[in-house]
Amino acid sequence: MPSASRKHLATALIFIVPALWSVNYLIARWAPGVIAPNLLAGERWLMAGAAFCVIYRSELWAQRRAVLADWRHMLVLGALGMWICGAWVYLGGQTTSATNIALIYSLSPVMIVVVSRLWLKESFSLLQGCGVALALAGVVHVVLKGEWTALARVHWAIGDAWILAATLSWTFFSILLKRWTTPLSDGARLAAISLAGVLVILPFAAWEAATAPGPAFSRAGFELALAGAVLPGYAAYLAYSWMLRELGAARVSVVLYLGPLYAAVMAWLVLGEPIHAYHAVGLALVLPGIYLVNRQPDRIQSN
Question: The whole model's pTM is what?
């Protein structure tokens, strides 16, 4: 595929990937009382990793020495992207509000932009920075339901520390995925990272299974893990990895700002929750912001 076509496809995926990730909002709503956080993350990435391994088995075997030589990076990325960004969000959700989770996660694209500019030396213009700020305003408007004075009434809980750790983890997962080079394709690399993440999760999942007051495994829990493995797992992570390579971490980071909007649509379609005017206002801010972030060619330098 020509370079220009790859970039156009990567840009289009900015609007598709958040829809895949939004399935995880529903999974998080249904998971409490059905399956424990680490068990859910472990089952999810075991199934997603198995799918990656089956599809990319020939490449993994041919590149087995490269995989073994890079095991430390795989383990770090697995811990960041599959364990902390998975189970810790579910843990935080047990003691904090959805508003707090969304507010804290809205900081992630800003942090990715700053770190990628300073560490990866990615070009980023002042106009693109304005686009990030505009998209941030849009998502905060949705989170606060259009009532900005509600910021003064936000109460912080212990669960917020779990969410902040997950936000920082996603930032460094995105940066390191871009910084650490590998001869593997995106899919083969994610196979190794997923299984490394399962190894990290395994002792915590085993502890949850051993201490669960009731049955640790159930059909409902398996179905939630399977849904998480297919859409917000396999499909979303593969597309996100490809977008990082084509567009860079800073430009791709804005996909997170479409999440709350897509989640609102998902909740409307599946749970019957209403759509409000503040969703439309948020969309009117987020979309121009994403356009500004991605309209400029890579050669334009930061002002």
Answer: 0.85
